[in-house]
UniProtKB/TrEMBL annotation:
<dbReference type="GO" id="GO:0004422">
    <property type="term" value="F:hypoxanthine phosphoribosyltransferase activity"/>
</dbReference>
<keyword id="KW-1003">Cell membrane</keyword>
<comment type="similarity">
    <text>Belongs to the purine/pyrimidine phosphoribosyltransferase family. XGPT subfamily.</text>
</comment>
<comment type="function">
    <text>Purine salvage pathway enzyme that catalyzes the transfer of the ribosyl-5-phosphate group from 5-phospho-alpha-D-ribose 1-diphosphate (PRPP) to the N9 position of the 6-oxopurines guanine and xanthine to form the corresponding ribonucleotides GMP (guanosine 5'-monophosphate) and XMP (xanthosine 5'-monophosphate), with the release of PPi. To a lesser extent, also acts on hypoxanthine.</text>
</comment>
<dbReference type="GO" id="GO:0052657">
    <property type="term" value="F:guanine phosphoribosyltransferase activity"/>
</dbReference>
<feature type="binding site">
    <location>
        <position position="105"/>
    </location>
    <ligand>
        <name>guanine</name>
    </ligand>
</feature>
<dbReference type="GO" id="GO:0032263">
    <property type="term" value="P:GMP salvage"/>
</dbReference>
<keyword id="KW-0479">Metal-binding</keyword>
<feature type="binding site">
    <location>
        <position position="105"/>
    </location>
    <ligand>
        <name>xanthine</name>
    </ligand>
</feature>
<feature type="binding site">
    <location>
        <begin position="147"/>
        <end position="148"/>
    </location>
    <ligand>
        <name>GMP</name>
    </ligand>
</feature>
<dbReference type="GO" id="GO:0032265">
    <property type="term" value="P:XMP salvage"/>
</dbReference>
<dbReference type="InterPro" id="IPR023747">
    <property type="entry name" value="Xanthine_Guanine_PRibTrfase"/>
</dbReference>
<keyword id="KW-0328">Glycosyltransferase</keyword>
<feature type="binding site">
    <location>
        <begin position="105"/>
        <end position="109"/>
    </location>
    <ligand>
        <name>GMP</name>
    </ligand>
</feature>
<feature type="binding site">
    <location>
        <position position="148"/>
    </location>
    <ligand>
        <name>xanthine</name>
    </ligand>
</feature>
<comment type="pathway">
    <text>Purine metabolism; XMP biosynthesis via salvage pathway; XMP from xanthine: step 1/1.</text>
</comment>
<comment type="pathway">
    <text>Purine metabolism; GMP biosynthesis via salvage pathway; GMP from guanine: step 1/1.</text>
</comment>
Amino acid sequence: MSETPANAFPVYWEQFHRDSRALAFRLKGVADWKAIVCITRGGLVPAAIIARELGIRMIDTVCVASYHDYESQGDMQVIKAIDPSVVDVEGGEGEGVLIIDDLVDTGKTAKVVRAMLPKAHFATVYAKPMGRPLVDTFVTEVSQDTWIYFPWDMGLQFQPPITHEHAG
């Protein structure tokens, strides 16, 4: 990102951990969770925290890419689908499965994953208004024009991934 947006919301590791634990607390007792499907890459960290807090051992990923340049959403690409054994864990369609992501933004990714697991419970740490109706549980709502800087995106300033600094 070349410049900081007016509505920047930096989230540091301690806060993200607390917010992820708060999400786990909200999910405790909602159902007898059999598995977690985390949406990569943003869902990996909260999924690990929630799995630990709720004692869930079966974890799978669905790999969906929509942000290709850290600035704008592009075409939706499913890079890796959910393992069929997770889809069918409680008789099919994702019943007993938690879908975890860091953020629901426009809802494009959420719609794709919801179609794969229509009976799953969708939970995110943060939600924006456009995507919020697609999520069952979340911790914090931010405005649609807010850009969240996650801990893995930051140093003293925004840090591009290492692979962008090397040729070949």
